[in-house]
Amino acid sequence: MDTYQTPLTSRYASKEMCQLFSSGTRFGTWRKLWLNLAIAEKELGLPISDSAIEQMKANLDLDEEQFKIAAVEEKKRRHDVMAHVHTFGVVAPDAAGIIHLGATSCYVTDNADLIFLRDGLDILLPKLATVISRLSEFAQTYRDLPTLGFTHFQPAQLTTVGKRATLWIQELLWDLRNLERARNDIGFRGVKGTTGTQGSFLALFDGDHDKVEALDKRVTELSGLPYAYPVTGQTYSRKIDADVLGPLASFGATVHKICTDIRLLANLKEVEEPFEKDQIGSSAMAYKRNPMRSERACSLARHLMVLQQDALMTSSVQWFERTLDDSANRRIAIPEAYLTADTLLIILQNISEGMVVYPKVIARRISQELPFMATENIIMAIVKHGGDRQDCHEKIRVLSHEAGAVVKEQGGENDLIERVKKDSYFEPIWAELDTLLDPSTFIGRAPEQVDKFLAEWVKPALEPYAESLKNIQAATLNV
């Protein structure tokens, strides 16, 4: 092919999200908005014929020929809305004289965008719930599998594989909450006229303010939005875009954190993302199993995070009732934010449905670090047998440094426990060493925290999505 295509539509995003932001959906939505305006105007007494309404209803979807007509008209008129007003009138001739009556271009462009913002979130939210559900199953499965915790990516106290997953889930729950809030807060621009004063509609209804207010309310109802913004300029405030892209950007940060953790764990060979039977990790190094899903997610997450800046900067420079320097930017930033978020959810679902855990690798790493972490337990055990804490501390300090030198300077295994077993000072607790070094005694309340978190926080959050969770299939990546 000789024309650039965005990878978001050609490789990554779902069919339903690509369709939402397609030309067919956009212009078909414009026609529905024109129909809703005509219905409401007719109900309130304007002379609009039944045949005009019926012809509009019968031609809400554009065929290939109508797209060609609109393209010719737009090239001639240099105005996309008027090109489509004309094209709609061709197939609904009885309505040609009343299509767009009293409206400004933003009646269709802005109201359609608000519908897309809402419908896009309706696509994303069940997918996010699915990812949370899949990761919750993973957390439950590995609720009590001890693993080495890291702070500063340095060995720290033990946690469990399941508990670590709850850290990911909790951030995703916040994203779910934030996106639900954004979705439920979306309103409608309504019928406000060229500068938001509704002057054109007041003229149409001979100065009847009640009818203008009724028109605004009725068109909002017909268009399926819960309310209309009480005041607007020519456009709805572009702050609304920032309010929606903000939670999407925040979700991008969550994805980046999760997938970075998985990439680091893959390097440690403790956890891996799914790897297909015939998948190639490297064209040169046949043994490699690169975490390519997580790498792709991190790459796209960075793109999603920066798109909020487009919305913020656009909102900040909207002069007075409007300026047109928002239009080109929004045509790119808003669809890309949704397509990118959709892609990230597909990737996350795929990863969460097939993550592989290697308990023996995890246990080996614990065995390398746990002796150092167990020194306090050893000291306490000696004290219980009548020993002096300070004497024991000094002896264990010396042995620890010797064992550390073997690990760091000689590349050997951690032999601290062998040194303890050879030192007669520690003979009173030799029989207790296996118990003192049991990893399950170092994980605190991690398993109980997992259970409580899943029951009290995750389960209620997912209840509204119960039906969709039954129907969503396993995520298969296109590439």
UniProtKB/TrEMBL annotation:
Enzyme class per UniProt: lyase
UniProt-listed SMART domains: ADSL_C
EC number: 4.3.2.2
Catalysed reactions, semicolon-separated: N(6)-(1,2-dicarboxyethyl)-AMP = fumarate + AMP; (2S)-2-[5-amino-1-(5-phospho-beta-D-ribosyl)imidazole-4-carboxamido]succinate = 5-amino-1-(5-phospho-beta-D-ribosyl)imidazole-4-carboxamide + fumarate
Alphabetical GO biological process terms: 'de novo' AMP biosynthetic process; 'de novo' IMP biosynthetic process
Keyword Ligase among record annotations: no
Family statement drawn from the similarity comment of this UniProt entry: Belongs to the lyase 1 family. Adenylosuccinate lyase subfamily.
Keyword line: Lyase, Purine biosynthesis
Coiled-coil annotated residue ranges, if any: none
Protein name, per record: Adenylosuccinate lyase
Entry's Gene Ontology cellular component terms: cytosol
Signal peptide segment: none
